[in-house]
């Protein structure tokens, strides 16, 4: 199977849903045989749960839909390079391929900080980065710019 832009576009749509509710705009889509099995976005703030990353939630939904923990034959499209928790879940769930958008120089575990996918685990995941990177990166930058502006305005109103 090869990269499919329509699935990354759906991951970006999911990321925009996250941004609309004040969550970090990260979206994920799991695909099998050209069909979307699950989709999700970050919900850490909403659910007050550090496990509510887009990838983890999408994996959980896919496992429930497919009736098992092994997601063989599945691909994950995600707007940001997976962190260590998500990389571990991807490996453990036996996803075949990951396509991600923007790199994450602070927490990325597909090569930016560390590459968990190249470690000697029993399951090998093919990982490809940089897909729709500019769109993914711009969405994150806009979100954090607006968040900083909001915090600055709140701080100013407290001073006055």
Keywords for this entry:
5 strands; alpha/beta; 43% helix; single chain; five-stranded mixed β-sheet
Strand content: 15-25%
Order of strands, main sheet, comes to 2-1-3-4-5
- Any idea what the shape is? globular
Unreliable residue stretches? none
What integer is the average pLDDT? Answer: 94
Helix and strand pattern: HEEHHEHEEH
Task: Describe, in plain words, how this protein is organized in 3D.
The chain is α/β, with parallel strands linked by helices and 160 residues long. The protein has helices at 5-20, 44-47, 54-66, 84-92, 133-159, and strands spanning 27-32, 35-41, 74-80, 97-102, 126-129. A 5-stranded mixed β-sheet has the order 2-1-3-4-5. A hairpin with a 2-residue loop joins β1 (27-32) and β2 (35-41). The longest helix is centred in the C-terminal third of the chain and has 27 residues, at 133-159. It is globular and about 60 Å long. It starts with a helix and ends with a helix. 41% of the residues are buried. The mean pLDDT is 94.
Give the arrangement of secondary structure elements.
Layout: H1 5-20, E1 27-32, E2 35-41, H2 44-47, H3 54-66, E3 74-80, H4 84-92, E4 97-102, E5 126-129, H5 133-159
Parallel strand pairs: 3-4, 4-5
Antiparallel strand pairs: 1-2, 1-3
Helix pairs in contact: 1-5
Give a summary of the structure in a few sentences.
The protein has 160 residues and is α/β, with parallel strands linked by helices. Helices cover 43% and strands 19% of the residues. Helix 1 (5-20) packs parallel to helix 5 (133-159).
């Amino acid at each position: 199977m090869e990269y499919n832009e329509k699935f990354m576009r759906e991951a970006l749509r999911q990321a925009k849903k996250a941004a609309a509710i004040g969550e970090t705009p990260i979206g994920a889509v799991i695909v099998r045989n050209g069909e979307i099995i699950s989709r999700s976005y970050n919900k850490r703030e909403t659910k007050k749960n550090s496990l509510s990353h887009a990838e983890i939630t999408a994996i959980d939904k896919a496992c429930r839909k497919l009736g098992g923990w092994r997601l063989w034959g599945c691909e994950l499209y995600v707007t940001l390079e997976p962190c260590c928790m998500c990389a571990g879940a991807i490996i453990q769930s036996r996803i075949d391929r990951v396509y991600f958008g923007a790199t994450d120089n602070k927490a990325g575990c597909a090569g930016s900080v560390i590459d968990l996918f190249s470690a000697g685990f029993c399951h090998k995941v093919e990982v490809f980065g940089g897909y729709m990177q500019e769109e993914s990166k711009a969405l994150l930058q806009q979100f954090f710019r607006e968040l900083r502006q909001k915090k600055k305005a709140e701080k100013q109103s407290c001073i006055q």
